[in-house]
């Protein structure tokens, strides 16, 4: 279906510019991904490609490619590092679905529903192993340090999330610590390895890392808002998934804290005790509207988006810089 | 309880010599392990130490230390690499217990029974991430290559095992391919990084790798024999675990292939259909005795043990070489 955008629209240009600018490199990344999921153990490419081929935006590897370009890197290492970043992300998704007992992922049955939890855990491990192999092949110790540290932080964030799951006492800072670790850290690492490969100065690497970190936080905040409807339907994931899984995201944190006694009893019944009845999702969304929880979650996202853009401010103007700024706008505009 | 060994016994000296020779280094490895399981997310040290502190022999990190010594390595890198090897092993155990739905590990409740499958998957990921961080800190690209390749092969072997699980048609070669990948590869990598750190010649690295690979195969074969009683009780694991989980190990492969029609029906009922009745384990062990399946499994183990020892034959005689040879004898003698 075509989407008609009136030409005077203030809508951001979306991801088009970024997609176009890294298209040639991305083709090589895709070929690498395909080659590196190959195995004589046929279940490995089956499970891996079920998820990898199912239409993720590949935003994270695009960021690695874009940052390498921004840094003027002229080698080949960014291709394998971008593929490694996507493998790390895919491994996390496979393990997440097992941990969350999710049925669906990107609008398809989750891999664990087709091949079982066993295969999801082990193919995730395989992809992590392949990711590290590719990083080692690139041979840049600084990039290795960035990505291996990220792997540990991401796992730490996932464990941390177990502690906040179904816990309505979670506050905004605790929520933020979780999404920094489990989502934003990979965005940050994906961005930082570009200038690291190009041996750029520390300040420049820190700027790229900050861009990724804040974009990642904004991205996750918008994701969490979209799970309660945002202002439009969300592709590939169903409204209410987080609610049914008892996930404590910022819209819930804000609604719980701003709610009445009886509203807090509602959140405890549905998210802590897991007793969800017909109409509860609508009731939850009504409370969020009453307390401006979605609105304020998106406001927080805009805050981090602005930090991301300012992080790149010292870089000279260029098409790739413009494309990265537009990627921030796109990540936030998904909610409208 | 003290074990009384008559002094004229032909029993191998066991692991004592190896343990003594690497004791000083091992203390540093243990301190590193403790420091690296630390996290503000309290569940991480809890889960990690539940398993790490529960009395594994730490044979794999001992091999890394011993091979570094054999190679005359004088740096510090072997400490972190040995800790990384133990973390990779522990991560595999955590994930294995989830995949196998095991209740017990090393004579204690499996971590997943105490903290849940979620924590076992995610703390495993955390340990893998920490393992890679430590390797990167050592900064030797060759060692990184060896260990990251091993991580991918191990995961591949685990997925391969999903295909042989509950499949009585598995033959000895297929079984061997699985244990090479899932067990012996880490032994091989643990041994190979020692001479790699010391920049030894290719032939010497290959010899150490071959020692580890064949010791690992022998070790797993004996483990699989012990699960059906071997000739004595096995520490920390219960006789019959593999049987109850429907695992296809060499004792089963041999018994199935050498069995009568009605015996094969027995194996298919118990291992494929999972219908296990009282007395079935005894019946299984009786069939194994009839077909010399345990005896021949241990014979295969001695075969690989001999290859392991010959792999080290060109190394000049030294206490550490003797200790490594005794480790092979020990691994096999566990069955007697």
CATH fold type of chain A: Farnesyl Diphosphate Synthase
CATH architecture of chain A: Orthogonal Bundle
Low-confidence stretches of chain A: 1-10
Biggest sheet of chain A: strands, sense, closure? 2 strands, antiparallel
User: What class, by secondary structure content of chain A?
Assistant: mainly alpha
> How many DSSP helices of chain A?
15
Number of domains as seen in the coordinates of chain A? 1
Using only CA atoms, what is the Rg of chain A?
A: 20 Å
The overall pLDDT average of chain A reads 91
Tell me the total number of β-strands of chain A.
2
CATH classification, class level of chain A: Mainly Alpha
> Strand arrangement, largest sheet of chain A?
1-2
Element pattern of chain A in H and E:
HHHHHEEHHHHHHHHHH
Helix share bin of chain A: over 70%
CATH superfamily descriptor of chain A: Farnesyl Diphosphate Synthase
Shape of chain A: globular
């Amino acid at each position: 279906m075509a989407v008609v955008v009136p030409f005077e629209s203030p809508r951001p240009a979306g991801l088009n510019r970024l997609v176009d600018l890294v298209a040639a490199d991305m083709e090589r990344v895709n070929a690498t991904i395909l080659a590196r999921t190959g195995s004589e153990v046929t279940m490995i490419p089956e499970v891996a490609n079920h998820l990898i081929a199912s239409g993720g935006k590949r935003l994270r590897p695009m960021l690695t490619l874009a940052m390498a370009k921004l840094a003027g890197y002229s080698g080949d290492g960014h291709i394998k590092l971008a593929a490694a970043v996507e493998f790390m992300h895919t491994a996390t998704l496979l393990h997440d679905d097992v941990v969350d007992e999710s049925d669906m992922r990107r609008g398809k049955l989750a891999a664990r529903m087709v091949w079982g939890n066993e295969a999801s855990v082990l193919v995730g491990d395989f992809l992590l192993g392949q990711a590290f192999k590719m990083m080692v092949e690139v041979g840049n110790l600084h990039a290795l340090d960035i990505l291996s540290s990220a792997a540990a932080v991401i796992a730490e964030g996932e464990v941390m999330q177990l502690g906040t799951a179904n816990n309505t006492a979670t506050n905004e800072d605790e929520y933020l610590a979780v999404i920094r670790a489990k989502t934003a850290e990979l965005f940050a690492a994906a961005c930082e390895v570009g200038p690291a490969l190009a041996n750029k100065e520390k300040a420049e690497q820190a700027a790229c890392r900050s861009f990724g970190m804040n974009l990642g936080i904004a991205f996750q905040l918008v994701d969490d808002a979209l799970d309660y409807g945002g202002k439009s339907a969300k592709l590939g994931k169903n409204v209410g998934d987080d609610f049914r899984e008892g996930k404590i995201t910022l819209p819930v944190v804000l609604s719980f804290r701003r709610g009445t006694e009886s509203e807090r009893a509602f959140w405890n019944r549905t998210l802590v005790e897991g007793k969800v009845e017909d109409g509860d999702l609508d009731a939850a969304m009504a409370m969020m509207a009453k307390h401006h929880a979605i609105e304020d979650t998106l406001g927080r996202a805009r805050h981090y988006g602005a930090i991301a853009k300012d992080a790149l401010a010292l870089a000279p103007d260029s098409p790739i810089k413009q494309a990265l700024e537009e990627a921030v706008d796109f990540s936030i505009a998904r909610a409208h």
